[in-house]
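Encode chain A's predicted structure.
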Amino acid sequence: MKLFEIKNKPAPWLLVEAAEGKNTHLEHLEDLVFNNGYAGAATAYNYLEALRNMLIKGRGRRGRVTVKWDGAPAIICGIDPADGKFFLGTKSVFAKDAKLVKSLKDIEQWYSDKPGLAKKLTVAFQHLPKLGIGNVLQGDLMFTEEDLGIAEVGGEQCYVFTPNTISYAVPVGTEDSPNPLGQRIRRAKMGIIFHTAYEGVSLPEMQASFGVNVSSLTQTPDVWVDDAFFKDVTGRASLTPEEDRAIAGNIAAGRATLEKFKPAAQRKKFDAILANTEFSTYIKPFINNKIRGGEQVGDLHAFLKEFVEFYKSKMEAEIAKLKGGATSKAAQQRLANIQAQEQFIANNVNSLLAVMATYKRIIELKLAIVNKLRQVESMIGTFQKTETGYRVMNPEGFVAIGHDGGAVKLVDRLEFSRANFAGMQDWKRQ
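Encoded structure for chain A:
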């Protein structure tokens, strides 16, 4: 994928500094509403405003957006401050019982029961030190030599690799004019996309910063390496005046609605979702369940009723597993939870409708921006492998990086869920 880069002055909400913690999980932009209530909604609108500013042609502001590459496994590698030695591993390197690979014997010891993973880590351990990494980087492994194939994609011969769900294709070029990128990938022993850097006096204390500039790494033909930043060198991802007015109007309307909850008493009502641990625990699984079923948030009244039924089914499933059955104390507690949840929604219906309306508006704005980002021409195409060939597919999504060092996912969850399901069906038929 080409990189998204708009130069000049930094936008106030998209300049990365230092992220706290480790990059093990990113939240969806809209889920900030459920995580942090009023403050989360305000933060989401700040992200959206900064993205809008970044995409206005001629605005002269720079934001930082990265592409979510669908690679596997995640690899963390670099220099261990404890002994100055090169290491690599999966996300478990930050765990209490960290598995730091510092020799081929380590791979044999820890991953002999996973031969496929062991093979890829062996290739990575042999070649990543050639990059001269001076700190610690996290990336997604895109391919090893054996993963590369040649196939006709869109009527053109391409080098193809499928690290996970999405297939990536790079044109081979012609005999007289081979594609330089294709030739680099063909010669490489492995390919990796780096997206997160870590700094700290020890691995457990390291802090993440999203976004990696790979230009300082040593070039070697054995490793095709790139960073995840998305650049728009053609200007195709610039908002038209009409698109900008629509997005700006929706952001303003959303903020105006949110402003009504700014007074402490009203804000407490909006943040009622945070105080109710059962609601905050089950609302995201409920939404994920709807997405897997091909549904997005629709009518809000119906949505709340469906949530109650979802919650009720979860409690009843738990009761069915209890040894004491429906008469046990634990079962009675779950039945009480169902009644409490029904009462909570009845008592707070207007506030919950406002929360869900905010959530829904943020999704709509996010999708408008994601659709614009997708218009950038790419040097590496994204496809879904089917029984009859390759179907054009959008990237999994993007990551917006905030000035506070945080980052959020910008993903069309419904589309990606459909692609995952279709991919699973194809896998089952094989």
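The mean pLDDT is 84.
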